[in-house]
Amino acid sequence: MPQDLILIVEDSPVDALITKKMIQLTSDSCEVKIFDSGKEAKKFVENEGPEHLPRLVLLDMNMPDLGGLDFLKEVNKSESWSGVPIVAISSHYLPGEKESCKSYGISKFLEKPLAQEEVKELFAIV
């Protein structure tokens, strides 16, 4: 049985590894891939094709090169992404950022550092 794919798009290696570990403690049926930029995550999904879309994306909103909002704008151009839950994660949100993200289909907003209970709750939305 193929594992569910979860993408962590996070430029902080420490935050990404902690989040990955919490996901693995919550579910052993997930394959977790970490990308340190929105560009890399987008390129991965484009190369894999629509049949390999992730079950869930955890998206840091404040990243260099292709930030969270720009990533959302890009993936929303593709109909195949319409059913993929994307959860925004950030240590702080800029004024108006949540409202902008909602218009692009963000499923939930979480603040760093994430707690294990929050990670468990994510599996209820997917």
Topology:
Elements: E1 4-9, H1 13-26, E2 30-35, H2 38-48, E3 56-60, H3 68-75, E4 86-90, H4 97-102, E5 106-111, H5 116-125
Parallel strand pairs: 1-2, 1-3, 3-4, 4-5
Distance between the termini: 18 Å
**Overall helicity:** 25-40%
The total beta strand count reads 5
Low-confidence stretches: none
- What is the structural class? alpha/beta
Radius of gyration: 13 Å
Overall mean pLDDT: 85
Oligomer: single chain
Give the strand order of the largest sheet, numbering strands 1, 2, ... along the chain. 2-1-3-4-5
Order of helices and strands: EHEHEHEHEH
Task: Provide a count of the helices.
Answer: 5
Q: Beta-strand percentage?
A: 15-25%
- Which of globular, elongated, flat, extended, rod-shaped describes the shape? globular
Main β-sheet description: 5 strands, parallel
Short description:
The protein has helices at 13-26, 38-48, 68-75, 97-102, 116-125, and strands spanning 4-9, 30-35, 56-60, 86-90, 106-111. It has 126 residues and is α/β, with parallel strands linked by helices. Helix 1 (13-26) links the parallel strand 1 (4-9) and strand 2 (30-35).
Explained architecture:
This protein is an alpha/beta fold. Helix content is 39%, strand content 22%. The chain contains five helices and five strands; from the N terminus they run βαβαβαβαβα. It has helices at 13-26, 38-48, 68-75, 97-102, 116-125, and strands at 4-9, 30-35, 56-60, 86-90, 106-111. Strands 2-1-3-4-5 form a five-stranded parallel sheet. It is globular. The mean pLDDT is 85.
